[in-house]
Design a protein that fits this description.
The complex is a heterodimer of chains A (about 70) and B (about 120). Chain A is α+β, with helices and mostly antiparallel strands. Helices cover about 30% and strands about 30% of the residues of chain A. Chain A has a single domain (about 5-65), classed as 2-Layer Sandwich (GMP Synthetase, Chain A, domain 3), CATH 3.30.300.90. Chain A has 3 helices and 3 strands. Chain A has a 3-stranded mixed beta sheet. The longest helix of chain B has 13 residues, at about 1-15. A 4-stranded mixed beta sheet of chain B has the order 2-1-3-4. Chain B has about 120 residues and is an alpha+beta fold. The chains are: A alpha+beta (about 70), B alpha+beta (about 120). Chains A and B meet through α1 and β3 of A and α4 of B.
């Protein structure tokens, strides 16, 4: 997702309970479930080694954000 | 594995709203499971929570069936809806209320809470 704008929020101050907001054109026409699968796949290594314990995901296309 | 799939299919078919989570309704053992329980409490429809925290084979089967690695996992009317990251935006747009009305239509079940 080369154009992706990503914001990360540390929810607990412990750096492992995170919320991410990902905005990219790659989400156009993609269902919410599949958008989450894409983000989870990108973050799979950080999930696997425990850097991310809990993660909330919000997604949007540029049009959805500005529209 | 086939048995697990059958068991899961039976559970999904038998519960209009089904949450696979960590812990039970009375004793959730994960913040997101608790959040999901509180989320559905707001709608007032009956829902079931099945604890799979320590059942790794079942968690594996569920992840494969849904292509979704995390808990909780929510099924409504037999269909997979991910978690509250997916459901909260649907709720904001009013889509979830409509979905729940459709799901429970004709079942004789009405919500204990009237939202509108």
């Amino acid at each position: 997702m080369p154009d992706a704008a990503v914001e990360v929020y540390d929810l607990t101050g412990t750096m492992d309970h995170l919320e991410v907001f990902v905005q990219t054109k790659a989400f156009v026409g993609v269902s919410p479930l599949d958008r989450h699968r894409m983000v989870e796949r990108a973050l799979a290594p950080a999930r696997a080694d425990g850097r991310i314990h809990a993660l909330q995901i919000r997604t949007a296309t540029p049009e959805e954000t500005h529209g | 594995m086939a048995d697990l799939h059958d068991e899961i299919q039976r559970e999904i078919a038998g519960n209009p709203i089904l949450v696979y989570g960590k812990g039970t309704k009375d004793a959730p053992r994960c913040g997101f499971t608790l959040e999901t329980i509180q989320f559905f409490n707001r709608f007032g429809y009956p829902f079931e929570v099945i604890d799979v925290l320590e059942n790794m084979p079942k968690r594996q089967a569920l992840s494969e069936m849904t292509d979704w690695q995390t808990l909780p996992k929510v099924f409504i009317g037999g269909q997979f809806f991910g978690d509250t990251d997916i459901l909260a935006p649907m709720a904001e747009k009013g889509e979830l209320a409509t979905l729940l009305e459709t799901t429970f239509a004709g079942s004789g079940v009405s919500p204990t809470i009237q939202l509108r």
